[in-house]
Amino acid sequence: MRRITRIATVGLASAALALSATACGGKKSSDTGSSDSKEATAAIAYDIGGRGDQSFNDAAYAGLQKAESELKVKGAEAEPTDGEGEADKVQRLTELARKGNNPVIGVGFAYAPAIKKVAPKFPNTTFGIIDDTSVTGPNIANLVFNEEQGSYLAGVAAAKVSKTGTVGFIGGVEVPLIKKFEAGFAQGVKDTNPNAKVLSQYLTQPPNFDGFAKPDLGKAAAQGQLDAGADVVYAAAGLAGSGAIEAASAKGKWAIGVDSDQYNQAGLSKYKDAILTSVTKDVSDSVFDLIKSVKDGKPTTGEIRYGLDKDGVGLADSNPKYKEMADVIAAVEKAKADIIAKKITVKTTP
């Protein structure tokens, strides 16, 4: 596997300096997105929390790793900074495109305004954005998921294993995307046990996005829900969700992970026995597929949606304890089949 260049963008004044100290694609390219290097290159710009969040960003990184290994593509990564603004994202994407990376992928809906500004300036570069359809263009690929469907399955599992009849949902930031997670989860719980109680809490409100980045916030919220009687906690909160998993583990209760199969994340190995399952999004393959389409000379653009029908979302079964729960698995599989057959329509708002 080839070395991946990591770019820490620390604001407009220092962005050029940071990028000049890295090697992510040869000489500076023209503003059309072409590169002087013959080696295929691709870049991902991380969302809040950055690589190492054991969740969303790490799933995107896995896709880049796979492209490096299987497609012999050189990868570049760009990290976010605390409290950054739109101008920082514009600068980050611009520099990645100028370096000749193609595609350039923004990990998360927060990149939408920046991609809207940058993509037209690099018509020969494909820009990918994960979790957003608001910005479109001839060279923009919108990689989106039916998060509510995977979350519904998590709700079914939570209702089946709960002994108290009370479960918790923790959202990182109260935005429409995360409300899809809440809606699907709550519906799955209630459809399985109409008498169940769902405690819901959001860690921060926009424009404060710390709820995706600070584990202590997730831990405190989970502790509050556990103290209120919840015995299963599902957090859709990026890096902050690891705090919720830690809290559930400390209380001997169940946690449900998100985005990646968190049972298998090395950074959460201390708490893995408490991770019943995880709602997975195939962010990894969405990144890989876009990179491959560009390398093959047929770049994918427009909306590319991943749902249960294509295994683009799902429920992980890595925990051996979960695999032993035949009744839970049967209920989840039935719900999955009913959603795919359109017998169940999952809500996207609570």
Give an overview of the whole structure:
The structure is a single chain. By secondary structure, the protein is α/β, with parallel strands linked by helices. The protein contains 11 helices and 13 strands. Strands 1-3-2-4-5-6-12 form a 7-stranded parallel beta sheet, with helices on both faces. Strands 8-7-9-10-11-13 form a 6-stranded mixed beta sheet, sandwiched between helices. Helix 3 packs across helix 4. The longest helix has 17 residues. The chain is globular. The N and C termini lie far apart (44 Å). The N terminus is likely disordered.
Question: Main beta sheet: strand number and arrangement?
Answer: 7 strands, parallel
Question: Beta-strand percentage?
Answer: 15-25%
Q: State the helix count.
A: 11
Strand order in the largest sheet:
1-3-2-4-5-6-12
Average residue pLDDT: 89
H/E topology pattern: EHEHEHEHEEHEHEHEHEEHEEHH
Low-pLDDT parts are 1-37
Distance between the termini: 44 Å
Shape assignment = globular
Alpha-carbon Rg, integer:
20 Å
Number of strands: 13
Structure classification: alpha/beta
Helix content: 25-40%
Task: Looking at this protein, list some descriptive labels.
globular, disordered N terminus, six-stranded mixed sheet, alpha/beta, seven-stranded parallel sheet, 350 residues, 13 strands
